[in-house]
Amino acid sequence: MSSVDSKKGVGDWVSGVGSDRTIAYLLIAPTIAVLLALTIYPLIYSIKVSFESSSGTATLQNFTRLFTDQFFLSALSHTFVYAAIALTVEFLLGLGLALLLDSQIRARNVWRTMLLVPMMLPPVVVGVVWRLMLNSNFGAVNGTLKSFGVNADALTWTASPKLAMASVIIADVWQWTPFMFLILLAGLQAIPREPYEAALVDGSTAWQTFRHVTLPLLKPAILIALLLRTMELLRVFDHIFILTEGGPGLATETLGLYIYRTAFRFSNFGYAAAMSFVLLLITNIISAGYIRLLQTRET
Amino acid sequence: MKSTRFVFAIIAVIALAVSGCQRSGTQDTRTLTLAINSGVEGDALKQAAKDYEQQTGIHINIAEFPYANLFEKELIDLNARTGAYDLIMLDDPWFPKFASLNVLTDLMPLLQKRGKSGPDDDFVATSIALGREPYQTGALYALPYVGNSQLFFYRKDLFQKHNLKEPATWDDVLAAAKTISENETNGAPGGGKVYGYVMRAAQGNAAVADFMPIFWAFGGEMFDGAGQPTVNSPEGIAALKFMIELGKYSPPGYASFNADEVGAHLLQGTAAMSINWPAWISSFSDASKSKVIGRMEFGQLPAAKNPGRAEIGNWLIAIPRDAKNIEAAMDFLLWVTQREQMKLSAQRGNPPTRKSLFTDPEMVAKFPSYPAQLRSLESSRPRPRTPLWNEIENAFGIYLSKANSGELTAEDAMNQANAEIKRIVERGQ
Amino acid sequence: MSVRSPTVREGKLRSLQPTKPFAYARASDTAFEMEQMKPVRFLKYAVIIIALLLTLAPVYWMITISFKREVDQFALPPKWFVFTPTLEHYADAFINRSFGQYLFNSLFVAVASTICALVIGTLAAYALARFRLPWNLDRKLALWILSTRMFPAIVTAVPLFLIMRAVWLVNTRVSLIIVYTGLNLPFVVWMMRGFFAEVPRDLEEAAMVDGDSRMGAFWRVVLPLVAPGLAATAVFCLIVSWNEFLFALVLTQTDDAMTLPVGIAGRVTQYGIKWGAMSAAAVVAMVPILVFALSVQRYLVRGLSLGAVKG
Q: Chain C residues with CB inside 8 Å of B25's CB?
């Protein structure tokens, strides 16, 4: 860990000889410059338009509207449902697969390679693939179920208010479980062997070892994976846009879709920006939670 | 200092890499850029552009976007006054938005400069009216290129088999849908059920487009004279109840169908009736797509309290106000909408907007549905002409879709839709 | 890396009843694998095969769609294996439409933005991993850099379009390269910071004692050691740039700069989706990134096992 190493040479690395610090600033400067250029103006612009009415006068109406807008409130709750379910399923499946491939197994690299395919596809394509698979009349999923003698007529997937949410989650899980799996597998393989050997000597069960050795040592990888996925899930847009466009009714309309529609189709950037600040706030709170959990490990 | 030099070297490399990428999109007077719809209408325009290039030596750039993104794309670019496009294709319900923003070129002065007193009389009245703001009477900002209006599609073989006549009223439609659904449980090509009717009730454009002809026929109106929404009138609620009733004979899941699902059902022979756009007609005689060759007939929209009227859905072409080559764009616009060019476009599968082409014997021989299409087009209605239409259609479509999927009753859906549309109208004022 | 003591307390483990060795644990000796019961092993492979089927079947289905005539695409029961193949959709994509140009744009933008992000981000990551700045600035900067990824792209798209218009970069590949560089930077910084933290300082100090400058030591000693990490990070950047849709849609206006995802979405027409052409384009979009990612995936996993875990 860096905290251990850094005790050495504190004098010249930490407080810094003048030239060292100059180098540090020079090295960081380009990154800061690019990110400032690409974020500061958009941020100022968004703040400005969010306090403007459609005619350009100063107003708070974009923010007061949030509390009474049924479409916004339902989009918010859909976003939470979507993120929570997809995150849980992706985590459990990803962890299961990672444990499986971390165990003694032949041709591990071949399996791993093939399992990673979905996360490399453009999300636009994933939306198309699943629209194709889940079409209730001509899709491969129902077609295959039917050829096994299952009566799949009632499974209308993206068309049914009840199954539409499941459909968009299935597509997300399909694409992003590999990402979860990849990070968790990497985490597992970085765990040293000694604690396991100790556990083996102690004669603990598989579950006990998992609970008391694997999980604690895997915690940083788990938190990173959850953090990255949560940030993406909260603003999900691409697959849903292609799979259901938020329907039927409002069944799968998440915040990302509603913001998009408001900004681009209704050209109401002020209200879209106001909603984005809500999304940003939520993302920040949740991320701060994860980061705090991560840091408790380090102290 | 060595390290600073290193940093500068890196910065220089980045600068080189960035400046090395070529700038594109340089414009000169011999170049036109078109924003077009990805689909059969855009394809026809693309072909015409190629011919025009060969004839005149003017280079034409094409920017092709999917229907869902074209509007957004054009709105951003026109609003930001980038002048990126010299000509844009637009669907007629978008027109009031562009007109209200004052981002289109008035075509009349350009016509007069070319010795014309106005657009050709040959254009169908309902089509040319769409390109004026205010509707029908105002200044001309766009010319109609593709003359779509809805038709009633039905399977004449099944109608003959069950002794049914072409439906004149919506009650006839419901009765025929019931008969076919009940008797054709195994009548689809390759086995399987034939559904009496198929409609699209996905939220947004789809549900509204399939509902409007029923709504109008039942006597519903979206707005009263004062611009207040009236979708929850008794007529409106009765129309939605009827739509839901008809939905019982539609394939499961129709509440999220879009055009492609409806088209697939009709082409695979698993549904017998539908309201649809003429662009589908040619597919029914294409053996690589259709299992019902020669069995589909195209008629007028059924009536109820009021005579049946189709919704119009024309593609217009306009010149942005900030276009770089307005004169050259106008020359192209007049060239591509003249009779001979539009005939070529029609032969590529797009309904024309000129009366003389709908009645041209050569064209009627090739497209037997042309007389029906002209009748439909001439009696068609536009969607309510408001710059807020996208937002209103979105809200209305959501409630229609919810009612069709069983989430809301017809009354609740219409009352909530009315309240929502009212809020949209008030915000827009 | 240094080993932290597991949070398991010895006493607690001892008190547990000794039972059979766990099936999945990481033991290296082959004798252990022999001990594994046959049903367990069978089950393991069965689960993997099922997971693979679920993972690959949709991709396979899409590939077949790209070679099927329209009448076969929606046939019931689904035609998984036997159908009349056709290349018409590929011809449509590359001859009638500009997918060749989109492919070139995508390649150009993805490679250039990945290089830019790697160069800029790696330098910052090195500084953040190695130097302590006053007021905890190094840590605060690192968090700020990460937080720039949280603002929804949907809202930044419009103001970015206005910026690009102001500097006459709308509808150029350069505009996409700049935006994607910004999109990838936070990730590069965080990944690479983890890798640099892994490299013992002694190595650089030794090089500097031998007369190298700080940057010389970075260049000759540290960078080669983090090469696998760089490769892993590059793959991620490439995937992000290659797949990005929204900015590409907003910032491009003609074929000159449009990328593959925009072209693919363009096959959704008003009257339905051109499944064949879209699948053909999707296959073309999938193959290069897959070939590249899979060829360096060795580094990908190794890189992640250091970078992500160290965070």
A: 170-172, 253-254, 256-257
